[in-house]
Amino acid sequence: MKKTNNLTKQIGSFWAHYSYIVVMLVIMIVYAITISANGSSFRWSHITAILSSQNTCIIGTMAIGMALVVLTGQIDLSIGSSLVFTTSACIVVFNMTNSILAMIAAALIVGGILGLINGALVGLAKMPPFIATMGTMLIYRSLSLSVVRSMDTAISGSTSSQFAMLRSNSKYDFLRFSFGTGKILSIPYITLVFLLMVLLFIFVTKKTKYGKSIYAVGSNEKAAHLSGINTTFIKVSVYVVTGLLVGVASVLQACKLGNITPASSGKSYEMYAIAAIVLGGISMAGGKGNLLGVIFGALSYTTVNFIIVSIPSLTVDIQDTFQGLVLIIVILIQTLSPVLKEKAQIAKRRRLAESGK
Amino acid sequence: MKRILEMSHISKAFGGVKALTDVHLEVNEGEVHALLGENGAGKSTLMNILTGVLQADSGKITFLGKDYYTPTITQMEEAGIAFVHQELNVINDLTVVDNIFLTRELTGKFGLIDEDKEVQKTRELFESLGVKIDPTAMVRTLKTSEKQLLEICKALYTDAKLIILDEPTTSLSNEEIDHLFGILSKLREQGKSFIFISHKMPEIFTIADRYTVFRNGTFISSGDIKDTTPKDVTSDMVGTTFVDADMYEQRELGEEILKLHKLSGRGFSKISLSFRKGEIVAFTGLAGSGASELMQTMFGVLPIEGGSIEYKGKKLEGSIAHFMKNKIAMLPSNRKENSVIKDLSILENFYIAEHVLSFKKQIIKKSVEDERYEQQKKTLRIKAASSSAEITSLSGGNQQKVFLAKWLNTGAEVLLFNNPTRGVDVGAKAEIYRLILEFAKAGKTVIFNTLEIPEVQKIADRCVVFYGGKVAAILDHKDVSEKTVMGYSTGINTQR
Questions:
Q1: pLDDT at B259
Q2: Which of B243, B275, B296 is the last residue of a domain?
Q3: Residue B73, domain extent
């Protein structure tokens, strides 16, 4: 009796901390079933396809930043537009310099500045994060859009609606083919970059004083402030870190796809990133969650996409409906289970009290 | 006399901590019943059980002849019990009338709100009670005392038979208190009953008919007010073990270490005080006296508006982190709101402040942190199973000790404690006093802000009484008594 009790307790605690792994496994199993229903068998290549999907790597990398922002109890709606702006900038720099280093530096600097603007509006001007980043979301995209229309195609690298890396540059082949679509042990390099970033930030959040401050600010800002933590610095810094991660994502975007279309690329990526971190078990209320969840959240989200695409009778138009449903169901399970548990406890106590009168 | 409420054999525990053990409470129709006990005696827990906010582990409530075991909030409201909380639950951005009729608006044609009728009814009610509030005023513009009356009127409008008043007079002036008591007497004649929670003996002996005393979560005594004396009630409240003023011992004090020079800030002005190494100084004063604000200014939480703070001759001004670097620490009041970081573990809550000082060394070495924690845990006698457990798994007293440990861990020389014993049980309180004495013996300067005079008598070398943002008196240990302190803190006596 005691043993089974212990086991249920352990399962309960595993669910509480790692529900995102269970969620991903369930989604993977559903994917395997749909594949076999289509008459083929589930292979390793299906998994690498999920791993290398731009939804996993590019949105996943930005989702790390979103996770940090959300952990502090804030939000960043501008990351999709920031990705467009930053990728545009780094493609232009690449086209002009043919230098890998300059391209990466441009991505990080521009991404960092865009993040700093968000951070300053929220942390220093004390604007509500939702409104401030909604404003910059509109601005960042429209700026790239207006630049691409007026820019010389020799620099933008493409038509008047797109920034593209110049094929004539000598480093083009290396970036696009050796790195952008290259693999090691059947795992794409860009996936490795994403995983590396997650590992780095798992370390930051678990092992550094800065990381702990992020949780403290998100959990109880007042108590964090009274403990001496510079809460403004923490709140601004997570936006800057997000900007830097958008920079990394831009390099991945440029290398994987070779171009960016300001009018359409990166649309709704902020929503996908939020979905990924929520599936990854990070609380939107702040202060709670594990960065490891971002990997599983991003994979879950991509897999849901793949499932929908693999069902022939479903059109792309209905895709968002299913994505929305999956998100709502998973969150419903997460939020409802403690409520139901408490209700059951109260009912039990009531029964005990009334039978014991 | 008709009995309207009977609560019997009520017990309640939070985690492992017993808040109430087999307590009783009986209230008659048309009486003001004083519920007495020190902070942490279990009064609020019992009232929360009565109003359905908390569920009792065992026991029975009988109200107007009906039995309840684990009622809900709505059930008790409908039964006719209203709770006027200390932190008033009025909505500032609505008018007086809107507040009174909220969720039971009077409607006229087409189900629209009939505002004229509501105003009319409110006027009638106010007039019958002698309440002089404009029914159409925004609640934001009312004085605290008026908000209090508004809450009581609101309760009357729900036709409540029993109204719980939780320390209703804390922020009222003497005149306002008289006015409130006039209204209570009137309502009592109409057959309304009140449970009146207060610490102030003179008030209780003016207004209450009967009383019940709790101590440490147990029932101690009950009876008619006319058959007892303030002295007897007080000794019931504090018990025999608790009145030991023997804890205090005279010590050699060190050199002057902290000095306030004509310091002005939010809610106080031109305060000059000095503190010595190893000294224990108590700040006391009623709400609005400036004592708490002064303490917060001494830690950089509130800005300095004039004058200076000097630590060992060095002027201090700036961020909280700057004050921490200069060996000052502050344990804030209201533990749950200002100290507990609920998503962090015990260990993380412990080291978070020290990390502000050692921020340049970013990487956390868990073994080192654990060692430091274990050391503090031993000296402070913290009862906790594992340092990685959630902070909220600890009792209030042990949480508070973790926060004491957190500030000691910063290496501070001056410890500011803002209401350190609020909301912890009697046992933990005594331990906190003992610890404060130990800190002082080890050469730390302890300044604590409190509303409880017995605390001051137990441990303080000096007591600074604040009134209206100024120092009303500085009393030596031997001169501190409930009566003198009350005299200075209510502005009746003045020393200078």
A1: 92
A2: B243
A3: 3-243
Q: Does A215 touch chain B (CB under 8 A)?
A: yes
> Is residue B222 domain-shared with residue B150, that is, in the same domain?
yes
Rounded to whole angstroms, the Cα distance separating B415 from B449 reads: 11
- pLDDT digits over B81-94, tens only? 998 887 778 888 99
Residues 6+ apart with CB under 8 A from B233: B36, B201, B204, B211, B213
Cβ-Cβ contacts under 8 Å, A357 against chain B = 60, 69
Q: Which residues of A touch B348 (CB under 8 A)?
A: 212, 215-216
- CA dist., res. B113 & res. B373, Å (int): 61
C-alpha span between B154 and B174 (Å, rounded): 23
In degrees and rounded to multiples of 5, residue B307 shows phi and psi of: 75, -165
Expressed as residue numbers, the domain containing A92 is: 19-349
Interface residue B73 vs chain A (CB under 8 A): no
Q: Provide the mean pLDDT of chain A.
A: 87
Q: How many domains does chain B have?
A: 2
Is residue B411 included in any domain, yes or no? yes
A207 CB neighbours in chain B (<8 A) are: 363-364
Domain's final residue, options B223, B243, B263: B243
CA B234 to CA B199: how far, in whole Å?
Answer: 9
Residues B274/B414, Cβ–Cβ less than 8 Å:
no
How far apart CA B313 and CA B271 sit, in angstroms, is 17
CB–CB contact B321 A230 (8 Å): yes
Query: How many structural domains compose chain A?
Result: 1
- Beta carbons of B344 and A215 less than 8 Å apart: yes
pLDDT digits 0-9 by tens, B263-307: 999 889 899 999 999 999 999 887 678 888 999 999 999 999 999
Q: How many CA atoms lie within 13 A of B239 on its CB side?
A: 14
For residue B276, give the 3-state DSSP assignment: strand
CA neighbor of A227 nearest in space, from B123, B321, B143: B321
Measured between CB atoms, does B363 come within 8 Å of chain A?
yes
**Size of the A and B interface in Cβ pairs below 8 Å:** 94
Q: Where do the DSSP E strands lie in B198-298?
A: 210-215, 218-224, 256-265, 268-276, 280-284
- Residue B451 backbone phi and psi in degrees, to 5: -110, -5
- Rounded mean pLDDT, B411-425: 85
Which residues of chain B neighbour A209 with C-beta distances below 8 Å? 355, 358-359, 361-362, 364
Q: Are strands B162-166 and B81-84 parallel, antiparallel or unpaired?
A: parallel
Q: In the numeric block, which tokens belong to residue B412? A: 């501070």
Residue B359 and residue A209: Cβ atoms within 8 Å?
Answer: yes
Q: How far apart, in Å, do the first and last CA atoms of chain B sit?
A: 51
Select the residue of B319, B353, B363 nearest A227 (Cβ to Cβ): B353
Report CB contact under 8 Å: B70, A350: yes
Q: Which position has the token pair 């939804």?
A: A55
Which ipTM value was assigned to this complex? Answer: 0.83
Share of chain B above pLDDT 70, in %: 94
Provide the CATH number for the domain around residue B348: 3.40.50.300
Residue A354 forms part of a structural domain: no
